[in-house]
Amino acid sequence: MTGTGRNVPLCMVLGLFGLFMIRASGDDSPPGKLSSAPHHDQMRQLQEFKASLVSGSAISPSPSPQQQVVSGSRVYHVTDYGADPTGKSDSIEALDKAIADAFQGPSEGVLMEGISNLGGVQIDLEGGNYLLSKPLRLPAAGAGNLMIHGGTLRASNDFPADGYLIDLSSTTQEEMKEGSSSDLNSELTSSSSSYNYEYITLKDLMLDCNYRGGGISVVNSLRTGIDNCYIAHFTSNGILVQGGHETYIRNSFLGQHITAGGDAGERNYTGTAINLMGNDNAVTDVVIFSAAIGIIASGQANTFSGVHCYNKATGFGGTGIYLKLPGLTQTRIVNSYLDYTGIVAEDPVQLHISSSFFLGDAFILLKSINGVANGVSIVDNMFSGSNKGVEIVQLDQSKAPFTQIDQVVVDRNNAKGMNIKATVARGSTEGNGSSWTVDFSPVLLFPNLIKHVQYSLSSSRDGVFPNHVLRNVSENRVVIESDVAVPANVFVAVDQSLST
Ligand SMILES: *[C@@H]1O[C@H](CO)[C@@H](O)[C@H](O)[C@H]1NC(C)=O
Ligand SMILES: *[C@@H]1O[C@H](CO)[C@@H](O)[C@H](O)[C@H]1NC(C)=O
Ligand SMILES: *[C@@H]1O[C@H](CO)[C@@H](O)[C@H](O)[C@H]1NC(C)=O
């Protein structure tokens, strides 16, 4: 009981410290929830200024009387707007019109400040297959609680190669950036929130990018759900998340080429299935079957669970999950399946990888940028390979050696046909003499680093009580010496992971 009582304040201190770290990094990292606050204020000031020039009614356009009379369903069927469900003719205008009408409906209060609540309005694709010549975008920022679901969208042969089939960026903000600040009304209908959208759900969709551009782009939005989507034939990103937070990608399938593995064209895979340039997102129960990189994360505090990557194999230059956020990682990868393709983490600081399965010599690479590895747990995973001596966890120190190593635990993993690497190890040796050496260099992850040693010397020779001492731990080799020669067994436990 007293132990528990003592631990509580320590946890709180650690919690506050973690918060401080996030804030400290917020300014130079990709736009995230914490660094966006000044932008929010700017937007609100801009809006207040404009509102003083123009009548307040322009801020939220009131629905036309005709639309108020229609008090029926809030499900918008795209074929009612002339969309072609056979996929033969371009349906972008019809879909744009359906979404524009959905935006005109009654708004029921707000979600986040400046985001109007569309009340759960649905764009129903009615099981059709629609050709798009341009990205599908929402008409204005500052709205939420809308769902698009139930059909296929396919990029046309002249779809912009840098576009996304569904683009949740803010059209109004881009127009503002392009400098036409004369149109006050269009600026005033733009969001006063620092987020473009909140609670947009994209569900039960197949997105065929037709090797032109990407599938879904979520820019500076909040609580976006991507659920049961199949995204294929992308060349840039299957899903791009930029800024904002809490985009939840779940129960989905992504691949550049449609294959079930062992594809002859695997070496040619390009593109990234999921690109997370933002904080606090989750990817759960997702299969990535072809892409050069399965998931790349450059924002903090993302979590991956139940991800099966069999995109381009590591041996062909591919990566399953790439954590490109050196210095503050805060990523959890659990219960995932890295299938011939591994994980790369640059200068990991707070990284947890557990309960995952690595097949086909797939391994974890810690890549040094400034030599930092701190708070890393790689535990309770299974590795399976082909007896080529591939190590389960490897270091890339080509740029800089790891010099700031603290609280790195690689332990309790099992390997079949691969070589175990760990930060804790046990060994023993026996001999008749005054010096015993146990060499841990084949198993310890970091070269020349032992922070803690325990040993015992056991001798069966009657009547002799030798003095003995730990003499040397250099190069991961533990040397024990005694003052007299004795036949003895020496047992040694070493640890590289202790906090300094
Ligand atoms: C891969 O790309 C190369 C060069 O672009 C091409 O020659 C080859 O046919 C492609 N292989 C497959 C299987 O698509
Ligand atoms: C150990 O070595 C000594 C000589 O150095 C020898 O007398 C003794 O029998 C050896 N003991 C064993 C158990 O081999
Ligand atoms: C420890 O061993 C290394 C070689 O492994 C040697 O260079 C070094 O001098 C030794 N240190 C001591 C104190 O004996």
Question: What does this 3D model show about the protein?
Answer:
The chain is mostly beta strands and 500 residues long. It has a domain at 425-495. 14% of the residues lie in helices and 43% in strands. It contains six helices and 30 strands. The strands form two sheets. It has a 26-stranded parallel sheet that branches. Strands 27, 28, 29 and 30 form a four-stranded antiparallel sheet that branches. The radius of gyration is 28 Å and the shape is elongated. Mean pLDDT is 86; it is low at 1-40, 42-70 and 173-191. One 2-acetamido-2-deoxy-beta-D-glucopyranose binds next to loops.
Question: Mind sketching the topology for me?
Answer:
Elements: H1 2-26, H2 37-53, H3 65-69, E1 75-77, H4 92-104, E2 116-124, E3 129-132, E4 136-137, E5 143-155, E6 164-168, H5 171-177, H6 184-188, E7 197-208, E8 214-219, E9 222-232, E10 237-255, E11 272-279, E12 282-290, E13 293-297, E14 303-309, E15 319-323, E16 331-334, E17 337-339, E18 343-346, E19 349-354, E20 357-359, E21 364-367, E22 372-379, E23 382-384, E24 393-396, E25 404-411, E26 414-416, E27 424-439, E28 452-459, E29 468-472, E30 477-495
Parallel strand pairs: 1-2, 2-5, 3-5, 4-6, 5-7, 6-8, 7-9, 8-10, 9-10, 10-11, 10-12, 11-13, 12-14, 13-15, 14-16, 14-17, 15-18, 16-19, 17-20, 18-21, 19-22, 20-23, 21-24, 22-25, 23-26
Antiparallel strand pairs: 27-30, 28-30, 29-30
This protein binds 2-acetamido-2-deoxy-beta-D-glucopyranose (3 copies).
